[in-house]
Amino acid sequence: MAGSGFGTIFKITTWGESHGKGIGVVIDGCPAGLSLEESDIQAYLDRRKPGQSGFSTPRRESDRVEILSGVFEGKTTGTPISLIVRNENQKSADYSEIASFYRPGHADYTFDAKYGFRDYRGGGRSSGRETIGRVAAGSIAAKILHQMGIRLCTYTRSIGPVEISPERFDAGQIRQNPLYMPDAGAALEAQLYLEQCMSGQDSSGGVIECVIDGMPAGIGDPVFEKLDANLAKAVFSIGAVKGFEIGSGFQAAEKKGSENNDAFTCDASGTIQKQTNHAGGILGGMSDGSQIIFRAAVKPTPSIARTQHTVRKDGSPVDIQIKGRHDPVIVPRAVVVVESMAALVILDALLVNMSAKLDSILQFYK
Amino acid sequence: MAGSGFGTIFKITTWGESHGKGIGVVIDGCPAGLSLEESDIQAYLDRRKPGQSGFSTPRRESDRVEILSGVFEGKTTGTPISLIVRNENQKSADYSEIASFYRPGHADYTFDAKYGFRDYRGGGRSSGRETIGRVAAGSIAAKILHQMGIRLCTYTRSIGPVEISPERFDAGQIRQNPLYMPDAGAALEAQLYLEQCMSGQDSSGGVIECVIDGMPAGIGDPVFEKLDANLAKAVFSIGAVKGFEIGSGFQAAEKKGSENNDAFTCDASGTIQKQTNHAGGILGGMSDGSQIIFRAAVKPTPSIARTQHTVRKDGSPVDIQIKGRHDPVIVPRAVVVVESMAALVILDALLVNMSAKLDSILQFYK
Amino acid sequence: MAGSGFGTIFKITTWGESHGKGIGVVIDGCPAGLSLEESDIQAYLDRRKPGQSGFSTPRRESDRVEILSGVFEGKTTGTPISLIVRNENQKSADYSEIASFYRPGHADYTFDAKYGFRDYRGGGRSSGRETIGRVAAGSIAAKILHQMGIRLCTYTRSIGPVEISPERFDAGQIRQNPLYMPDAGAALEAQLYLEQCMSGQDSSGGVIECVIDGMPAGIGDPVFEKLDANLAKAVFSIGAVKGFEIGSGFQAAEKKGSENNDAFTCDASGTIQKQTNHAGGILGGMSDGSQIIFRAAVKPTPSIARTQHTVRKDGSPVDIQIKGRHDPVIVPRAVVVVESMAALVILDALLVNMSAKLDSILQFYK
Amino acid sequence: MAGSGFGTIFKITTWGESHGKGIGVVIDGCPAGLSLEESDIQAYLDRRKPGQSGFSTPRRESDRVEILSGVFEGKTTGTPISLIVRNENQKSADYSEIASFYRPGHADYTFDAKYGFRDYRGGGRSSGRETIGRVAAGSIAAKILHQMGIRLCTYTRSIGPVEISPERFDAGQIRQNPLYMPDAGAALEAQLYLEQCMSGQDSSGGVIECVIDGMPAGIGDPVFEKLDANLAKAVFSIGAVKGFEIGSGFQAAEKKGSENNDAFTCDASGTIQKQTNHAGGILGGMSDGSQIIFRAAVKPTPSIARTQHTVRKDGSPVDIQIKGRHDPVIVPRAVVVVESMAALVILDALLVNMSAKLDSILQFYK
Q1: Which pLDDT does position A12 carry in this prediction?
Q2: CA D41 – CA D70 distance, rounded (Å)
Q3: A146-173 exposure pattern, b = at least 16 Cβ within 10 A, e = fewer
Q4: Nearest to C358 among A34, A355, A358 (CB)
Q5: Does the N-terminal or the C-terminal CB of chain A have fewer CB atoms within 10 Å?
Q6: What is the ipTM of this complex?
């Protein structure tokens, strides 16, 4: 099992390698009747496109998406939506050398261990380009969520040691800087830090945060299909993610119950709410009506220019320098990937949830 | 979908509520030919049993497991293994009051939001007793892994602010103290801390760590079914878990690539290894042959004796005190639950992996 | 994979062997709020109980079902419903001899080929008792369908050469004769035929027919999850079924298009209908609003008293006579099993279908 | 759920409409290391291509397949294989009229009932062109099976009243006549029959038979995932199939046990076999080592030139004549589709089966 499928009702299957003919995704289970154009999808893809600043690789792909099926007269038909982005900029020659050794921090060795050999061109299936299919599908999920009044806001929370300040938080800033930080000051500081990393032929990690507004209460399941468990898997399935936490997250481990519990209250309109949100919007695996807030830790780009020790396929030692230019930080381009995966999980949970109550079902089919 | 199923080939389905007739699990897909007795399973269940120390609820359940199917003449037959633990100690009267209000930090409110009503006795399906099915199934997975030379070691890494010391790490200590800490000194300190919490009618969170030895390289899948993504989901599906990280985890976000990359090397026997293990044993979603190391952050027990503010079902405010005795910390009893979920994920990945290479398949059916 | 799970949203997992401790099923995904008592389930189980006439084995099991979880204060909670029927009448001694040879027409040989050994007592997992779990789950599905106005009527269409007559069809007769035939005359004739079979130490096959009324149009999916494809799998998964057809079935192969097409028309109320129903109520995999009609061919009971040639496990030849009394025909007791499987498929398709249209989803979550 | 996915380990997802940009399939879970070229797949696609004789529509599509991913240096990599066939011959104008009414025997009405509207061009997703994805994937499954010594032979068994004769059966004839009949005499007779149908502006049904040689015993599962149940679903998921039977099939219903049971015997080499094969190669859901033999009943092409009565979307009556030329019989072109679906089921069952026995697993990972 290559494991390239995701979702229960809104199911996606992605395919494609960095230097193959293209990258794509098939979405099986998109509801019928959604207005959908290539531009809806392109807007999301453009957020992960390389070559947009000094902090992402200058490989310039136009990454134009083409809808191959599932849309008729501008609307989804309920049948599979097949999307393709053709690869344009593949210079396989650049990658011939890396076929012979195992790059530290990459999946070269594990691919060989699993499959016996690998498509070594640009990381093959483990390239960042694999996320194109996720983002293309996620853009459609997000469009549906938007119509349901559910909005996702995702941004860079930290890069290396530079973290955004709660006081300066400004969502309007997110798309104003190349690092997608909601804090202009931190963004400037982080750019300086990244320039240092680059001049030291090095790279940096960081943290991505996602906030989901408008989620109704009671979505998700109480045991294995907890909403937070599915978000954890979705986000952890993105290459380079090494940690996931929701609400107070790892800090909860140091707290006392009296500090971490969120008291329930009732607002003027009669809506039950929580006074605080240490839970991050999910209790017992089901949404509690508050904002859903989670974070993902992203490791530093493993492709660095400085000399590294490693081995060849036969085990013999070799010192390597990874050529070509690589993003000094994965985080900014991964922001939209995290948002896309979250959108897929949230929408799927909402669709699955329609059959939770007999009354709703009888009403639906009345 | 209640979402009580887990796994692809080694599939489990759990059932049961805290105060229903019992708790159980059906394992569909256990290979034929495993020697299995109730005592194999009981040994695991006893590790999560309440009433074993001053730090767990004195509710004394014998929690005896009964094998109902799938084992014939002492061996698994390949057909579903049905396991049941009868509930013995259910005093529903204790729980009548909590039917009327929503306990902070619990799933009471979200259950009502999803299903319209709930089995309010002892947390119903969201009780810690739900994990009995996980542990019973996990014990069987672990027995198979043991025969493959794969061992899991799981323990309490921290309770509140008290963390184990790497210098004093002693796996032999884990079962020597009621907190399952591999550090006698930290265990004593943590017990003092928990006594403080209890005298303050409060509770504490903590961190669980799991180390897996003997895992062959190349297990797991490169995209959505990454081994770490499945571990993340498995562990996050345990109630009270708020964070998950692997290897250097959230610390990777603050590091540089040159610090976080693990150099490959080759030992005398010709085995390719990593010199360090910041990756935590998984690269690109597939095991790399190193130890797999992950951590889970567990929130403090939400049931605390001190007065809390909340609302009734109709939204009216109420001050509550949760009666009965509750564990002041979830962590020690959750250690075996984390280990069980990890065993399920690891075994399933190994079984799925058998069809990765055509050569192996042709050899298998020769 | 033992393959004991069935369904997408309304998922069941069955377990148990003929001579183990019991037989059971876990239903994961039953909507919350259904009134459910053991008597609802028992009514279905009683329809497949042995020992009810001269044409079924006199092994008298009371087959009492017990609800173990998922029901609180008389209503389903949305969490897994675990059901158990304890085995009572297991005399393992009766079956010791068959451990040594392979009975013709049974799964003895294939079980050994797959798993290396088998629980040989009474057929083990391949016993007819395996269907108890299906029927218990099916009874719940049927109860929900009933509330949606969907009724299933299943009966014996033929036994050996004796077929019901369309002219004498009387649904009221089905439960009036031990063969579940909707034709009193055919039932008498079939009983005579079965007596002949029994006196000749032989058995008979037959055909079961199922008619589903009240199904809304548009349920099912157009490609692999066609409603008829899922019915085919469900019915074919019942032991002894050797053929399945819908509507005109195999006769359609001999017809011309002008004979087989069903013309659409419109009734006074404006409802679009078909003038005929050669399609059997499904077009392109989706229900068309007509009656769904399908048939299953059931082979004769393989356990017959007359001498048969076979081999022992080591391949040496042996002549055997299967002892004990066995049903001379499987069909009557399988009628409720076919109905149960159909109910599971139909309900699951209805639940899956709730997310087909965006408009309905937006309306649902408004 | 559009339901366009199929398989457990060797999973496929098909997409595409008759008059969209193309038709395709993604295969997720193909083992690594299979030599694969476009010509392997093309050979299968050519068997279902239209325009090859007077008995199939003259719409001439070249139907050239392109491999988009998953193959590197001539071998499958273990990652998803994406295949596309571009549509070339779409004249949407031809189909504008059928948008307004519901063709008898087609899915027009049910599509509208399910999704609210439909892509009416050439049947949209319910076109016969949907099977291109199945055949493309099936060709790969068949190539793997071939390397395991498993061969599928599929042919037309009957067209209308014309059936092949067992005495004249000659597999070498199958590709020698446009009807894929293994009997030259019957093929001639059937051609005459089809010419009559065509001159009467009518069409014919027929029966397809598939024989699988070389299958090891013990493949498939004993309960819901019976090998015959999965074959039934796979074949029934092909449009126009109305019946499925295995071995003696519907005839078993008329037989006695003594006639239908297959006696076991042992050949000179010590292999256990059956003397007859009424079972069709599967007992209790698992292969028994004999030939697997099944049949599918295919309805007559619903698109016929003669005038038919139907209704418009608003229910008003209309007499229609379906323009354009259509195959007078679906059977010959469906032969390779049936074979492809069978190959997918058989291969998947073999892959799933690798984890049936603990001994095999321990041996595999030794």
Answers
A1: 98
A2: 14
A3: eebebebebbbbbbbebbbeeeeeeeeb
A4: A34
A5: C
A6: 0.97
